[in-house]
Model the fold of this input.
Amino acid sequence: MNEIFKGVDHIKYEGPDSKNLMAFKHYNADELVGERTMADHLRFSIAYWHTFTGKGVDPFGSATMFRPWDQPGDPLDQAKERMIAAFEFMSKLGVKYFCFHDRDIAPEGATLRETNKNLDVMVDLAKQLMKDTGIKLLWGTANLFNHPRFVHGAATSCNADVFAYAAAQVKKALEVTKELGGENYVFWGGREGYETLLNTNMQLELDNFARFLHMAVDYAKEIGFTGQFLIEPKPKEPTKHQYDFDAASVHAFLLKYGLEKHFKLNIEANHATLAAHTFEHELHYARINGLLGSVDANQGDLLLGWDTDQMPTDIYTTTLAMYEILKNGGLQPGGLNFDCKVRRGSFELDDLFIGHIVGFDAFAYGLKVAYKLLQSEELEQFVEERYASYASGIGKQIVDGKADFKQLEAYALEMPEITNRSGRQEVLESIINRYLVKG
Ligand code: XLS
Ligand code: CA
Ligand code: CA
Done:
């Protein structure tokens, strides 16, 4: 087998003082944080599409990345070379999981039959490489957005033939995910939305979307796929409006269509930004509703209005994210998938390692800080104290459902002047900074 990443050894932990770009400064896989190792807390995963098929293309410019595994030739042979390189990269990085779309790993053929055959060949190879390296599949998914047939959507297309094609594709992707022992399956509806309401029957589209997801639930049951189903919210891009807008709108959709028992959410940082939320808002909303299943860990750029899928380097954000994840009791069977791409200008091969190393370190640092913050209970105690009025007296009657408008009016009429207390945002931010700097 040809070594692609020559001169790169297994990436090691060298500690915070190391200046070696090819070493971890904070991510020490076997180090315990509380009762779990860092690897168990963080469950890092590599996104096959960005890291191995990404070419640096953007809407204004062509490829800048010419990878050694992308030699001209038969597309299936190319796919094999790419997969072998992918497993070499992942082994050297020391990551335990990866994720893929069906079309990332195998080329489309002339017909769906031929495409499925290509996929089978690649799944056999993946199975072998997974066995050899011990790397596991965090989640599988189907690409229902790239091909022109999905121009008007997939499960929400106005064209029933497209609905049927998408169903066939998801059926196969579920079989393949099961075959490879995938621990989750993701639905990201990139084209499940609309460009203009003028040509859209929103009610039919939403009903069809729910029918599609029910069929997926039924089929998973039929074949014995027991992985967690995840929906990944995103408000827009590529569509103007995406139905899975954010955690709260997906929650409403699941409840409306009786799907809430079968799905959790895959929260992506950059998608939260596009929905005008913070990452921690989306994680928090999902967590308190029992919906936090997995995370796509890439960050966005607050000055750009699109999904830049950058390597996460902002330790303030990773700390607040890990705080939510720890409060969730972790993400398992989900994980932290690096749905990230190196910048278009970062086209050299070692940039792929360096990008992931700095991202893993940012989350490991965030984990350590968030763990200490949580242990101290400084924030918890403040919040508890802030809502103390609901722990006794009239507040307790309200939360116990023992108060009505008439009683509350009687209480209010006799009340002395109301006094409120400071929300102390700056105090709380100074606490976060103290922990961040202390490490
Ligand atoms: C695109 C999404 C996509 C999903 C998987 O913005 O992040 O990559 O994670 O289909
Ligand atoms: Ca994603
Ligand atoms: Ca994204």
About this structure: The chain has 16 helices and 14 strands. Residues 232, 268, 296, 339 surround calcium ion (ligand 2) (CB under 6 Å).
